[in-house]
Records
---
Amino acid sequence: MSLSKSLDHYLNSDGPAALVIQEPLMPVEGPEGVLFPATFAGGDGFPGGYNIDGDPNGENICLVDSVGSQANRIEPLFETDPYAELVPQIKIRAGENVISLLEAGHRAGDALVRCSALQEELQKAFRDVLRGNSEPLAKIAPTSIVFGVWDSRDTQAKLPRLVSSTIRAKNVRPLKRSAQFNPATDFVREGLLEEPVDKAARDAYAVRGFIHVPASGTHGGVIANGGVLRTATLSLAALKLLSAGDPDKTLKLRRYILGLSLVAFTAHTSNYLRQGCLLVLNPDAEREFAEVYPDGRRTPCPLTHEAALKYAGAVAKEFGVGESRIVDFDKERAKRDVSGESGGKGKKKGKKSDAEGA
């Protein structure tokens, strides 16, 4: 059996519905170490800060790293060797910056890309998606299919995430921290600066580091009494819905996207999430990598990252990786886009969904 056919059982109707990884994690200091989850702005009744569902000091679940954040950590992998040859390297020149499509927040639906020389080509590719043909988009932005995309400001074409990953902590105990900034000298007492005459002046001194500034009761991280778990899913059921028109092209498309998805899914993500949140595998808890079938059966998945990479290379050659290029951001296109004259549905204000990367 050729390498490109070796994983076709994942694409068959009687094959697994998904692959699932569950990795118990812990802070580098140990299971009882303090970790700092992501913080979020307030709104819609949410006061802001850590996202903790349930009793803040009892049975609860705390979001440590979101689906969008995890995707944004994994996707740039395809800019580096040996992964770069698996996808077209599309870059947008915007002023003095050259930005990879792999780093655009909304992927192929991002304003940066939409208002570039790729505009018409992408519009056509998204319209083809609406007609049931994802091959043109796979030639330009295949990782937009892997991690999900919503062309919310134009054609409204939407593809769900195939690979998703989230890190959550269970039964966390939030902590507070306080600090005190002391300037190198007392600038006012030494006559180096005038006494501040009002709150605005004192605030200005504080911002620039000229006076003592206390910081009390700020977020101090959490202790995860119930452990930390990274859960990742590769939705084979959604992948099997991809089409490229005729059966032969559809099979090559599905194999190609499967290869990219498996590479992303099995890749080692960074242990460092943010200051105070350095997580490693918990050696005392069991890691699961399973094939999950529609009837609920779970069987161990033997696939390694190295095997996934070899498979992805073989199917990428058969599919034909799209052209790599650098295109320019177009200010005139951006102006038309803002005014709703871009030829799509740009006047409709889009909202982010689970199909988009944060």
Note: The first helix runs from residue 67 to 74.
---
Amino acid sequence: MAEPSAEPGSAATADGLTEDLWLGGRLRLVQPKRGHRVGTDAALLVAAAADARQGRIVDVGAGVGAVGLALAKQNPLASADLVEIDAELAQLAESNAARNGLQPRARVLRLDALNSSERREAGLSESAHCVVTNPPFFDAGAVRASPHEGRARAHVLARAGLAQAGLADWIEASLAMLAPGGRFVMIHRPDALGLILAAIGSRLGALALLPIHPAAGASAHRLLISGVKGSKAPMRLAPGLVLHGADGRMTPEADALHRGERLVDWAS
């Protein structure tokens, strides 16, 4: 069951956009009315990475900037680089940074994150204290893409709309931006775990896997992954998070995470 992206106080704007209060009203976001919208996956990613107290945060595939801006908002000593290839979304991310008073600590980088030359030119090589990402969940050709261009781009991996680019490429590019000792946090599908671990290889240690269950007794439909670059600590499986009770409502823990009032418990 998907949670609504908007909260009380949201309003329609011109040109197919809405202005939404998100994360318990902590962030005001303008985003497309149709297509992929900010919701539970982004809220869980924020709650999983919100202990990044200082340094440089890079949000790879930032969209309208929700995750990176939320982390910068919660951590006054941190700065955020919002990496987004889509020109319209990058423009909205810039607008959202200004709307939330974060322009001094947030910059929007419109570039192809999978292009090493573009990363180097932007100063992103091994520069981040924390990299967060919510990659598209499917490879091009593996699924039938949505007819809505924005939703299709958010859900299906394709490099610059031309060549297929797999999840392994996305992970490797993200880790190339991470400084030694930096932390990587991602949300994805549990069935991609084998590919994810293969792509990470020995680059990360202290790996923590946290399954997300839509309801008690249901198989996990999301997986949070966290790791530290260069660490030799072993991998562990954190206790799962259940989003909904028997009545279909969010559990108290999930509701608190969704509203920005609680961090993910990695049980470290």
Note: The first strand starts at residue 11 and ends at 12.
---
Amino acid sequence: MAGRSEVEGAEGARRDEPMRGIRLLLASISLFSVSDALAKRLAETLPVVEIAWLRYLAFVALALLPLMRRSGSSLLRSRAPGLQMLRGFSVVGSALMFISALQHLPLAEATAINFVSPAFVTLLSVPVLGERVGWRRWTALAVGMVGMLIIVRPGSDVFSPAALLPVFSSAAWACAVVVTRRMGMTDPPATTLLWTAGVGFVVLTILMATGILFGGPGRVIQPDAGQVGLGLLIGVVSSVAQYLVVLAYRAAPASVLAPFSYVQLLFSGLLGFIMFGTVPDRWTVLGACVIAASGLYTVHRERVRARERARALRTA
């Protein structure tokens, strides 16, 4: 999904092209939704770890392309290997929990819950990055959490523990975002992609090997050619979506693009209906609207703060 972009901080010096950025972001969102829908379909017949391993196999292959073109190992060298490993663990953990959620939840519901990740980013940015968060952003955070609770409905007859999986997935992804911000410009984006793909692939390979040898949660079954092809397609589609996000955030500011990320809720709801015959209930729609409102207000506050910082620089 769009919230799973690998390019926080990709907004360097550039000439803004808002319409191009919006088109690229919408294309990436549609691909993320397709990738999630295909993963949900494949999760009906393959274990989660195996789906994630096939996805990362394609991810690693595509991430290695810049390395092969430059025919050197400089991209493998990181000045913050510990943070890169932490980011890799966070991203693969987020992927595993989200795919697990897709086994049990409608696509639109899992996607909507996953959009609370900005709230977790705000929570983590205070102790980890030392950011100052005003009462307005704390209020927006609380509203987003209320939206998540409306969808999950803990304590009700319809509550499912599986609804907590996208919440944990969001928290893991927020950790990856905060780590990326902490690294800043320490490593180039291609190096971060390589480390993220490599760390995740190693983790998943160990889980696969454990399943082969001992069975259990990481158990592996023999996939047929169609399942392998679908798993690799998921990896290619999600990786292309990541690349389109990179291009989008180079073309336009995050404050312009962020509101359009919520279009993924519509795409996911439509694909969920077409592929699985599921229609979001009124609570999911209400909770998604509350989460979106919280996120849009946060974007508005970021725009206000950016203008204030710009004025301060001009008058300094």
Note: Confidence is low (pLDDT under 50) at residues 5-14.
